[in-house]
Protein 1
Amino acid sequence: MPEELSNEISKELLELIESEDTALKIAEICFENGIGEDEKIRKIAYQTGRVLLGDLPPEKFCEDLEKNTGISAFLAGKIAREINDSIFYPVKESLATLYKTEIVPSEKPSVEVTPGIPPEEKPKREDVYREPIE
């Protein structure tokens, strides 16, 4: 690692980058979201590392995941939120210092979103367990 780069990055971020726990969290997030291909997991880990090294601003992380891994925008957004919450947010002060910005936790959608079906068009089902009121 170049000397000038390691001087800009906090010890906390360097330890996070080298941590086996970070790699395991990324792999777990990928598996939970249906990504089992080693190449895609490596690309997601690489993009995560770029954020931690100061090479990719956190606000461009989701867009970069979609572009460089070939996953859908919906999936890239979901993975980016989970990585933000579990990896970036705990070191938010170090990232804020590195990027000179504020890192905030991602907001969960207020309505559960099903891919391909807008929230207002979810199919309605009759509750077969409900008894009529007399």
Protein 2
Amino acid sequence: MPVLAEHLDSYVGPDETALVFTGALGGLLRRGNFRRDSGWSAAATGIGMPGLHFHDLRHTGNTLAAQAEASLADLKAQMGHDSVRAAMVYQHATGEADHKIAAALTAQIAASREKPTADRLAASSEPETSR
């Protein structure tokens, strides 16, 4: 965060509505010339991610939010979508989620074994009959 704050202080005007990314003349950065004017390809290659698209950052951010247990409503609001289908794109099944689910189920089973139920108590107090 400190590096980002320093960058914003250096390159973005103090006005609340100041643009974070600008075109060559300081105006709006248009989609058609974004890659060229921003130096995106060189920056992506410089971090070892050649071929990274700007939109990939949105996908990654929303996937991380989903993994942090953001609800579908939260994801929809963050993305600005009304569609549950659009938000579901970011609800990837992950190995980490599988481990959390398995651990929760294991804990529930263990807890149920530790608590004697009325049926178990009744069965253990009845005398065994011989056959």
Protein 3
Amino acid sequence: MLVSFTDKVEIKDAKRLGNGQMVFDAAVARVGVYRYHGSELGRPELGMVGVFRPESSIFDEASLASLAHVTVTDDHPTTDVTPKNWRDLSRGWTEGQIARDGNVIRVPMLIADAGLQDKIDAGKAEVSPGYRADITEQTGVHDGESYQFVMGPPRYNHVAVVDKARGGSKMRLGDSWPSTPIIGDRTVTTKTIIFDGVPIEATDAAAAAITKLQSQVTDAAAAHAVTIAAKDSEIGKQAAEIVARDAKIAELEKTVADSALTPARLDAAVAARTLVVDSAKKLIGSTFVADGKTEAQIRKEAVTAKIGDKAATMSDESIIAAFDTLAALIGDSKNEADPIRDALNNGGGQITDAETRAKSARQKMIDALTNPDAAEKAA
């Protein structure tokens, strides 16, 4: 797999020539294990990994040759340096005297651009070679450091002068994801955290901030869920109340429909009231007036007329029963015999035993209606 890389090394012992050009040399590569973030290798799911650069790759003749006479740029360009963009990007070049210094490659550089020289004088004091190299997955250990990939011989494209703030004085690969970046003179440890499913290499302070943010997001989501649940519960209660009201309305509508005065019901109601009024007139006499009175009032007035104040303590059901019984006993004055009436109509004649028994039976009935307990004892 071919991958693009950048390293970081510190500029040391920069000198100016008589013609105003600036020269220095830098150790741009070494044998060893470098730390990369998986995203730099096209494998973001891996987090930080080790890439071993063996001696056979670092000191490969073709690789060393590619480092001679390459363009020096002010920061890394967004694309490789080519003949088409060289005039715009070039601020200097590397010399051809590439040298091995132990396990390190050293290369002399020349800065011809006055603007970049001023930046270097002001503290822009690191160089970062940009190159491509094949890597293969292979695990192992070198000088006590484990690795998961092995790098093939690099093919250099340019060397960029970069700000010191972006890296330390030690040589590094993958300057975007340093395992132990240096800020000023202070070494800062980093850790890999997962944010929204993406692994991020961050300093302890940044990791703490991100973790706090994640917690706040989680808490906000939980609070939102509680609010939604409460709203759903409230909506559910309102829906239940609406269903209950609809059921009540339906019940009332049915009651109204059932109680509606159809012609048949009206005829029945008139007939029933007429029967009650006629019976009351028979019990009370011709002086009885039914206008403006309910059937219950009429019944109670008739029963009171027959049995006196005892009717005042009787229940509605007892009044109805007494009224119906009294009305039945009186019967139709034109068609039914009334022993009491007949005896009185005989001019005070003798009342027969049958008449006496009928009168006694009527009185017992009245007593039973007005005082059930006394009637039961008498029986």
